[in-house]
Write a structure and sequence with these properties.
AB_hydrolase_fold; about 35% helix; mainly alpha; flat
């Protein structure tokens, strides 16, 4: 959605970062497929946020 300096997130507990050529303040409206793809990649099976809640995988 916005491009932050890399130093803002390299030392934090960040599980997913994605950059796109287009999109802005209204990225969900301008590029909905990109945003949906990012969410699938982040929370989908094998993604970095998959299973973050102990004992729950979101697919029960």
């Amino acid at each position: 959605i916005i491009i932050n300096p890399k130093s803002w997130y390299t030392d934090k507990n960040i599980v997913f970062v994605s950059n796109h050529e287009r999109g802005g303040h209204f990225a969900a409206h301008e590029q909905p497929d990109k945003l949906a793809g990012d969410l699938r990649n982040m929370f989908g099976k094998g993604g970095p946020a998959y299973g973050v809640v102990p004992g729950k995988d979101g697919y029960e």
